Amino acid sequence: MTLPDQETEARDAITSGRTTLGIELGSTNIKACLIGPEHQVLAGGSHAWENELADGLWTYPLEAVHRGLQGAYAALVADVEQRYGVRPTTYAALGVSAMMHGYLAFDADDQLLVPFRTWRNTSTGPAAAELSELFGYNIPLRWSIAHLYQAILDDEPHVPQIASFTTLAGYVHRALTGRHVLGVGDASGMFPIDPATRDYDQRMLEQFRHLAAAKRPGLHVEGLLPEVLPAGADAGRLTADGAALLDPSGELRPGVLLCPPEGDAGTGMVATNAVAPRTGNISAGTSIFAMVVLEKPLTSVHHELDLVTTPAGDLVAMVHCNNGASELDAWAGVFGQFAAALGHPSSADDVFGALFTAALDGDADGGGLLAYNYLAGEPITGLEEGRPLIVRTPDSRLTLANVMRTQIYGAFGTLALGMNVLHGEGVAIDTMLAHGGMFRTAGVAQRFLAAAVDAPVAVGQTASEGGAWGIAVLAAYAAAVDGEDGPTLDAYLTEQVFADAALDVARPDADDVAGFAAYLERYSAGLAVERAATEAL
Question: How far is CA 390 from CA 106, 359, 387, in A?
């Protein structure tokens, strides 16, 4: 097919409403992705935003959510018009995903009671510890139920007024459709899911009801939580108010099917075709996390591991690290400024490419350097706050190559500690599929990650598309199933989305594995330095 033919087919798909739209609210960007009937990317748009610290808690104002949605959608429409000369007015389906966890509590009039508390907040320690002991199930600090119970423990005045609570994706979905629902993957970061029923665990709901009754009689959490829906379910239709919210111009027509809203972990699994047992995916962004689909439940409770689900409801072990690539971004910015000061201004991609390529020449163990990427607290290593550090001994080898290799190693350090726990459970992994901007420079971060997790790491052509593409694919799946019995999500992805996908696979190099193991041993010992820094600075 010639390029003009492809453009004509894309234009026809857009004007006839046969495309699907995905919108993902990430920590620094809201991205919109339009895909065609063959799941190919047709256009995209984005809107930059940042969380803010208000009264000691990380948040995003709802006004910023609305502006960001409109900004990303407007950018996508402009991209469509520039590429194809038309403007979309409807879609076969659309979907919303966002950062998982956190706490958005509303009263009976759907008014927000307290500012949105994001996944970055680590103020829920007492609640998470008590719930983990009660349930015999790890409840991380960022989970929505931990936020709710901490508010109960702290006797916050808004608690008696709560009529519902949800995640960011759930909030946006309700604004677009009027339905208080959540995809099972995102719901599994609010409250534990029973993999047999693919719904909230009834035993734990009963335990929580009794626990909360002592402090808040009459509070029934099951009445506050969103309804759980699996991938492929009809999650509602775009209302007139929802269409006006997304597109104030009035061109977007209501009535579009929406798939269940999902979290960024679930869309990452979809974007890398990692929803089957013995597969996993690693998403590297502001935070970094690994998801491994389990063949059976774990034998023990581990604070390093969350148990969540795929968008289809299958059990997943998740290693979630609060800190990811932000410190790498900061160092790349410094080197970019240095290049400009020398009279050689360079694009961010060129700077990253040069620095990552230099890392390949570093010592396998980082030359004795240590890097901690802790901008925020890190629950896996027991730190409530973070201080980014580079530490070295007098006899370490301070070179550009070692600095950059160490920074990349540092981005994977906490993740590797969590993955070691999973290996100790005897969990087998055939392939880890990676996505995120870190993997745009071929053969660097991917190679070092393979050493860190001691497993093959694959990067596909869709890796850089990320979660916005993933939720667009989930929307396409919902449109294809259309309420009927259809293929499983795993079969749909394997047979229809990724059938011809090319994968670049990096297998662990023995020298890299040994070098990273030596680095990780120093990294673990050096956590005392990081802890001291949080106390002193």
Answer: 43, 16, 10
The angle formed by the CA atoms of residues 376, 382 and 386, to the nearest 5 degrees, is 20
Residue 219 contacts by C-beta under 8 Å, 6 or more apart in sequence? 152, 159, 162, 209, 212, 213
DSSP 8-state class, residue 87: -
Residue type, 145: I
Phi and psi for 45 in degrees, rounded to 5? -155, 155
In single-letter form, the type of residue at position 81 comes to E
pTM: 0.84
In degrees, rounded to 5, the angle at the alpha carbon of residue 263 between the alpha carbons of residues 258 and 269 is 100
Chain centroid, CA 446 distance in Å:
18
Closest CA to 274 of 509, 501, 18, 41: 501
DSSP letters of 100-144? ---BEEE-TT--B-S--B-TT----HHHHHHHHHHHTS---TTSH
For position 1, what pLDDT does the model report?
42
| Domain architecture of the chain: domains with CATH | 3-264 (3.30.420.40), 273-461+507-537 (3.30.420.40)
Q: Which two tokens stand for residue 223?
A: 């009445």
Report the alpha-carbon distance of residue 331 to residue 389 in Å, rounded.
12
Q: Would you state the pLDDT for residue 378?
A: 93
400-424 helix and 326-341 helix, angle to the nearest 10 degrees: 170
**Cα 45–Cα 229–Cα 236 angle in degrees, nearest 5:** 60
Q: Which amino acid is at 352?
A: F
SS3 171: helix
Query: Are the CB atoms for 205 and 192 separated by under 8 Å?
Result: no
Taking residue 516's Cβ as centre, other Cβ atoms within 10 Å add up to 28
CB 472 within 8 A of CB 97: no
Over range 109-122, report the average pLDDT: 94
**Could you tell me where the DSSP H helices lie in 249-344?**
264-271, 326-341
For 286-363, where are the alpha helices, taking DSSP H only?
A: 326-341, 348-359
Phi and psi at 371, nearest 5°, equal -135, 130
Token pair of 451 as six digits: 């050493």
Q: Per-residue pLDDT averaged across 513-522, rounded?
A: 98
**Residue 7 class from Cβ within 10 Å (0-12 exposed, 13-18 middle, 19+ buried)?**
middle
What is the distance, to the nearest Å, from the Cα of residue 234 to the centroid of all Cα atoms in its chain?
Answer: 23
Bridge partners of residue 20, in order along the sequence: 35, 93
In this structure, of 85-99, 144-158, 426-440, 452-466, the range with the lowest mean pLDDT score is 452-466
Q: Cα separation of 94 and 189, whole Å?
A: 22
- Judging by beta carbons within 10 Å of its beta carbon (0-12, 13-18, 19+), is residue 178 exposed, middle or buried? middle
How confident is the model over 437-494, as pLDDT tens digits? 888 888 999 999 999 999 999 987 655 567 899 999 999 999 999 767 789 999 999 9
DSSP state letters, 423-475: HHTT---SEEEEESGGGSSTTSHHHHHHHHHTS-EEEETTTTTHHHHHHHHHH
Question: Residue type for 310, please?
Answer: T
Which residues have C-beta within 8 Å of that of residue 356, sequence separation ≥ 6? 404, 408, 441, 444, 445
